[in-house]
Each structure stands twice: as C-alpha cells, then as structure tokens.
Task: structure prediction
Amino acid sequence: MSRITALLSRKTLWIPLGLVLFLVFAIANIPASWGGYFLTRGTGLALSGVTGTLWNGRASLASLRTQVREYSLGQLSWQLRPLSLLTLSPCATVATRLPQQQFDGEICAAPSGALQVRDADISVPSVLLQTHLPIPIQGQFSSHIDQLQLRGNVLQSLKGNLTWNGARVNTGANWLDIGSYAAELSDNGNNGIKAQFFQLAGPMDVNLAVELTAPSGGRISGELAGPKAFFESANALDMLAMFAQEDRVDEQGKTHYRVDLNL
Result:
C-alpha cells in the first residue's frame, strides 16, 4: 500500500511539472505575428513576410510611413527582451538592412503610449533627406541616438549626434566636394530639434546652429568660413549669396560669411 501511495504522490508532482513544461513550450513558440503587432502599433511601421517567434522574429520587408512619404527599410529582425515585459514597457533589439542603409538599436513601447529609441546606430544615403533640403546634396549620413522619445508624431526628447561623410552640394553649375561634417542633436524642449553643426574635415570652417520648430519652420544661424578662391573656382558664390552674407576676412585669408536664415 505504501508503494501505491508513493507512486500516486509522484504522479501528483509530474502533473504540475508537465503543465509548466507545456506553458514554457507554448510561450517560447508564440508566433512572430505577435511581435509584429508590437512593432507596428502606432509607429507607422509596416511588415510583410513575418517569420520566427515573438521573441526572435524577422520580416522579409519593412517600410516606414511618415507624413511626407513612405521609406523602405529592407529586411528587419528583432529580439524581444523577456524581462522588459515585467515592467509593462516591452523592449526589443531591432535591426534593418538595405544597401547603404541600416538601423541597429533598442525600441521600447512605454506604458504612456510613447515610443522610445535607445542606443541606436543609423546610416542612410543623403537621397533620403533630399526632400527636406533646398539644394541638391550627396554623401552618407550616420547617426548615433542615445535616446529619442516620440508620442505619435510629436517629439518629446532627443539626444544624439549626426555625421555627414563625403559631403557634396550642387552649385547649379557643378558638384562641389565640401568634406565631412558633424552635429550634436537634442530636442528644443518644445517638440522641435536643435543641432550644432561643425566640420570634421574639408575646405570650409562651419559653426552653425539649426533649430527645427514644431509643427513647421525653424532657423539657421552662425558662420561659414573658407578661402574665397575656393568658392569662386566652384562657381558657388551665387548659391552662397542665397543664405549668407560676406562678413570679414581673417588673418589666414579665409572669408567669413554670416548665416541667418528662417526656414
């Protein structure tokens, strides 16, 4: 009789253990479509060809719709951080890939409904930004985002930096190589963006403060400097006169131009 009792007691242990194992298996194999829902909810992101699981999934094609246009992101993959679910702020490490275009970073959905991006590296060709600029440009833009928070289309916070490598501008007569530049990025405290631009390498010294206000408009102010012969040889003086005024010539022979432009 004692053997039968012992066997029954063992069975009562196996039943809850079996239930636990079943739940673990079921949770581990939650379909990737659930993760796709988390990534696309209120973000403007669209996914197709979704495979994998909630925890580790991928999409063969992703695109991001903004108020201006829709951007193709190429292949997208994600890894959901399980412990983040306990804080009701699910976070996933997300990566996208296209030729000359990529994103690697952490995306979180805050309980308030805001979207947070942390520790992200972004690289895009200049053509993706061309619609926002008054003159044709070429080059590659790279950015590191320490943190960014959006609620809908409203920017709530931003901290990061931006670099423009292989920078070229079209003067109307030809393409002008101007070097490489960088900017420190932050929010302006009123849903807009502030950027402080400076040169990394090239023939021009740049010290420009840019503010993009919400919902539209902004201002660019500061100074450009370089040998006047450089601008003359590139037939760039007419273009320069559109947004800058000649100010002074320093002891190194560089001509300084004052910039004060409303957007």
